[in-house]
Every structure is written in C-alpha cells, then in structure tokens.
C-alpha cells in the first residue's frame, strides 16, 4: 500500500475536518478514523487556570469536535465508519496532577458515550471504539519516566496491537484498558458501558494477561 501525510492543526476548527473531507471526496469512502492527537502535561492548583483550558482544548474539545463532525456527516450515509479514540487511563482513574489532562480525557469519553446514545435510534453504520492506555513508553514520555514523574510504562507495541484487535473485532468489548500490573505484567481489562435505569455504568467484562514477563524497568 501507500501512505500520505497531510498536516493539520486539531485545535483549529475546520482544519482536520477539511482534510477528512478531501480524503472522502477523493476516495468516495472513509473506513477508519483514529483520534490519537493530544499530549500530557501535569497541572495542579499551583498553576494558572489557562493550563487547564489548554489541556481541555487539545485533549477533549479537538477530538470530540472531530468525532461530532464525522457523525454529522456519516449518520445519513449508507457506509460503515469506525472511530477509534485513544483515551487514557486518566479517563477512568483519578490521579495526582491531573486537573487538566485527567479532566479533559474524562470529558472526552463522556462526550463520545453521549454521541453513541444519540445514534442508537438513527442507525448502526458508525461504531465507536476506545482504548485507555496506561503510561506508554513513547519517545516523548521516556524522559518523564526516567525522572520518576510517570510510572509503570508499557510498550508502544502492546498498545498498537490492542488497537488493531479492537478494530478487527477481536476483543469482547469496544472499550479496553491496557496497562502494567506488578502481578500480571501487561494486561488488558475489557470494559463495558451497561445501561441501567437510563444511565450508562462502566463494568469490567473480562481481563487478559498479554505479557507476564514484561519488565518496565528494562525499556
């Protein structure tokens, strides 16, 4: 196959949407969109609120806006679309220095669940998937890991493989946490949002141990 690179600014309204429109018009189809852009920065009460707004704009508003625009476009088209959002363990856990990043990621997942709820009565051609990685040993994160600001990293490969399994419908749920456990190594926790009394409640559906010999200190 071939790959093309097109550059956009996810924080600017219409930037990525115009790229998506170009690709769709050129190919008359769009199969998979991966919402992965974002960043982590610690934010505490010692910081100015502008840092919270920066994180929300980048890690919540941008990917949510893109997903919203995709739903608006595809809800009336007779085409299948898969939207995979790379959320974070911060979406389902409360942790130190998370007043920006944690709030943004939690709000992002909430927004996506509400989008799904609105779509229930309108068709089934759009499917949402979410992955909730723990700390991932990417090039940008390794200095923070070495400084002790982030703990228990997992390999990038394990996250990529989980994303591929999600999109290939090889997982028992469409929401998967992947992280490091001292007891199990790298593990996947399959999450399920079950509707109870009109509200969605998150529950653990199953757990898989991916690599019980993994040692984060040897990355």
Overview of the structural elements:
The chain is of the alpha/beta class and 219 residues long. The chain has helices at residues 15-27, 49-74, 101-119, 142-146, 156-167; strands at residues 32-35, 81-86, 126-133, 175-181, 185-196, 199-211. The chain has a six-stranded mixed β-sheet, sandwiched between helices. Helix 2 runs parallel beside helix 3 (101-119). The model has no long low-confidence stretch (mean pLDDT 91).
Give the overall average pLDDT: 91
Approximate helicity band = 25-40%
Low-confidence stretches: none
Secondary-structure element series: HEHEHEHHEEE
Structural class: alpha/beta
Percent of residues in beta strands:
15-25%
Strand order within the widest beta sheet: 1-2-3-4-5-6
In brief:
By secondary structure, the protein is of the alpha/beta class. Helices cover 34% and strands 23% of the residues. The model has no long low-confidence stretch (mean pLDDT 91).
Tag the structure with descriptive keywords:
alpha/beta, 5 helices, 23% strand, six-stranded mixed sheet, 219 residues, globular
Topology at a glance:
Blueprint: H1 15-27, E1 32-35, H2 49-74, E2 81-86, H3 101-119, E3 126-133, H4 142-146, H5 156-167, E4 175-181, E5 185-196, E6 199-211
Parallel strand pairs: 1-2, 2-3, 3-4
Antiparallel strand pairs: 4-5, 5-6
């Amino acid at each position: 196959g071939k790959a093309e690179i097109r550059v956009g600014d996810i924080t600017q309204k219409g930037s990525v949407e115009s790229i998506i429109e170009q690709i769709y018009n050129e190919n008359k189809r769009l199969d998979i969109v991966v919402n992965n852009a974002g960043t982590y920065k610690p934010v505490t009460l010692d910081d100015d609120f502008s840092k919270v707004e920066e994180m929300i704009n980048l890690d919540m508003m941008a990917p949510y806006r893109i997903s919203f625009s995709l739903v608006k476009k595809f809800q009336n088209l007779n085409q299948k679309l898969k939207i995979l959002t790379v959320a974070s363990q911060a979406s389902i856990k409360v942790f130190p220095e998370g007043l920006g990043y944690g709030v943004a990621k939690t709000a992002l997942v909430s927004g996506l669940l509400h989008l799904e709820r609105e779509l229930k009565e309108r068709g089934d051609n759009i499917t949402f998937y979410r992955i909730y990685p723990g700390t991932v040993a990417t090039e940008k994160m390794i200095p923070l890991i070495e400084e002790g600001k982030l703990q228990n990293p997992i390999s990038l490969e394990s996250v990529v493989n989980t994303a591929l399994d999600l999109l290939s419908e090889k997982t028992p749920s469409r929401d998967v946490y992947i992280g490091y456990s001292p007891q199990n190594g790298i593990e996947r926790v399959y999450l399920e949002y079950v509707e109870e009394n009109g509200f969605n409640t998150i529950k653990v559906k199953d757990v898989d141990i991916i690599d019980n010999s993994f040692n984060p200190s040897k990355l």
